[in-house]
Amino acid sequence: MNNAAIVDYLRSLNPGREIKLVGRGWHSMVFEIDGYIYRFANHSFNDYRIEAFLCDYFRQQVTFSLPEVNLVNDTHFQYAIHKKLPGTKLELNNNVNDGVIGDCALAMARIHSCADLAYFRQVCDPVLPAVGKDCIQVVLNSLFLKEETMMLMDSYFSSINQKGSEKVLVHGDFRGDNLLVNSRGRLMGILDWCNAGMAERERDFNYLYTDLNSKSLQKLLSSYEEYSGQPVSVKRIAELALVREINMLLLFPKDSQRRNKAKARLDSIVLKQKL
What we know:
- It is a single chain.
- By secondary structure, the chain is an alpha+beta fold.
- The protein has nine helices and ten strands.
- A hairpin with a 5-residue loop joins strand 8 (179-181) and strand 9 (187-190).
- Helix 4 packs across helix 5 and helix 8 (234-251) runs antiparallel to helix 9.
- The chain is globular and about 55 Å long.
- The relative contact order is 0.13.
C-alpha cells in the first residue's frame, strides 16, 4: 500500500490538520487525526466489516468500551474510522494488578460464551506447508542453541497437527497493545477485533501466556475457569503460542522489531517448559 498516496488523500479530507502515523501492523496502516483513528487494510477490507459487526454486537453486553467502527468505501480508498477510545495500553509486567487480570478473564469468558455466533468464520494460525524443515531450522539456528532449535521444531510440527479443543468465538489478538486500562489499572476497553472468529479458546491466552509472570498467569487461568466454568489446557496454550511466534519469524524475516519480540516470547515458552 502506498503510504504517500494515503497521506495525500487524508490531507485532502482534513486540510490543515496534523496527520500522525500511528503504525503499521499485520492488518492495517493506522493514522490518527484529531482524536480519530483511520485504518487502511493491508489485506482484506472484510476484516473491518467483521470487527464493526462484533463491536456493535457486544457493546450492550459488556462493561468495557468498544470502538464504534464506521466503514468508508469511496473511489480512492476503503478504510475504517473510529473515535479514539480513552485509556492507556496495558503494560504486562511484574506490576500488573490482580484486578485487571480478573477483568481480562471475565472479558474472555463473556466473548467465548457467545454460542449464537457459532456460524462465524473459522480462524487459525497460518500453516506454512511451502516452508520446509530445513528453512525453519536455519531461522531458528540463528537465534537458539541447537538443543533448543530441535525442541522448538519438534513442538512446532507436533502442534500444527493437533486437532485441539472445541471451537468458540475468540478475539484472536488479546494482548496488552489491544487492552486499555484506566488510571486505577482496570480494564476499560478492547481494540482490534480483526482477528476474531471461531477457534480454540486457548488461542486468546497466547500472548498473555508469554507476557505475564507465572503468578499472574495462574491468577488469569483460575479466574477464567471460575467465570466460564470451562477448563483451559496450559499445554495447548503453549503449543499455539509457539506456532504463532515461529510463524512470525518465518513471515517477517527482515522485520527486526517483530523478530526480537518473537525471540523474547519463544524464550519465555522455552523457559516455562523447562520449569
